[in-house]
Automatic annotation (TrEMBL):
Species classification: Bacteria, Bacillati, Actinomycetota, Actinomycetes, Kitasatosporales
Keywords recorded for this protein, A-Z: Hydrolase
Enzyme Commission number, as recorded: 3.4.21.89
Domain of life per record: Bacteria
Organism: Streptomyces fungicidicus
Identification of the protein by name: Signal peptidase I
Length: 237
């Protein structure tokens, strides 16, 4: 029991996908494993990573809360299910501190002037939407915050639609739980969640300074090796 609590607190925790906002990479009901260790070594989310984060400012205010049964309470206690008291979300990081993220009409989505090739976007969706709620935008990501979006673009109330909150739609770094690294359940859905190749394109970092070297401290820790890229097969979409 003590080991399970240690793992839950510092290493890895299961998280159940609550909606269709990350299809097709993640389906509602999937369970992913979240790396909680890397932030302890000064690591920050990178573009393209799928992260779990606490509700920044009422994003889930209107979502119903289901009372867990005794089994679910036990599983959340040992880290195999998220706590029903925690209001967490899961999205893909698009912009990191210093980035300019923009999208006009139906796209493409651009980071620092570079258009992203986004095969992970839900089939039939466009990178952004010409709506007044936030589908068309241009933002500069401040220090300590991140711009996140769901892969199911026309079914995701992400950073675009919370630009009037106290964080201007950004996710503060201290609200990030960790990076989702593996789809662990159901077994037929097992897969890793690597960073899409489009985020490695030349010139994407042109607007940024040198990257922090703090992550080097984590090099000896096996879980941190998952942080940038996993070479196993990708999920569909």
């Amino acid at each position: 029991m003590g080991l399970a609590l240690l793992i839950k607190t510092f290493l890895v925790q299961a998280f159940s996908i609550p909606s269709e906002s990350m299809q097709n990479a993640l389906q509602k009901g999937d369970r992913v494993l979240v790396d909680k260790l890397t932030p302890w070594f000064g690591g920050e989310p990178e573009r393209g990573e799928v992260i779990v984060f606490h509700d920044p400012d009422g994003w889930l205010a209107n979502e119903p809360v289901t009372e867990p049964n005794s089994v679910q309470r036990f599983l959340s206690f040992i880290g195999l299910m998220p706590s029903s008291e925690e209001k967490d979300l899961i999205k893909r990081v698009i912009g990191v501190p210093g980035d300019t993220v923009e999208c006009n009409g139906t796209g493409p989505l651009k980071v620092n002037g570079k258009a992203l090739d986004e095969p992970y976007v839900f089939p039939g969706n466009t990178p952004c939407s010409p709506d007044e709620g936030g589908g068309t935008f241009k933002v500069k990501v401040p220090d300590g915050k991140f711009w996140v979006m769901g892969d199911h673009r026309q079914s995701s109330l992400d950073s675009r639609y919370h630009q009037n909150d106290k964080n201007a739609g950004m996710v503060p770094s201290d609200e990030v739980v960790g990076r989702a690294i593996v789809v662990a359940w159901p077994p037929t859905r097992w897969s890793t969640l690597p960073v899409p190749e489009t985020f490695d394109q030349p010139g994407l970092n042109a607007a940024l300074g040198a990257t922090p070297g703090v992550l080097g401290l984590a090099g000896a820790v096996p879980l941190v090796l998952w942080r940038r890229r996993v070479t196993a097969r990708r999920t569909d979409g």
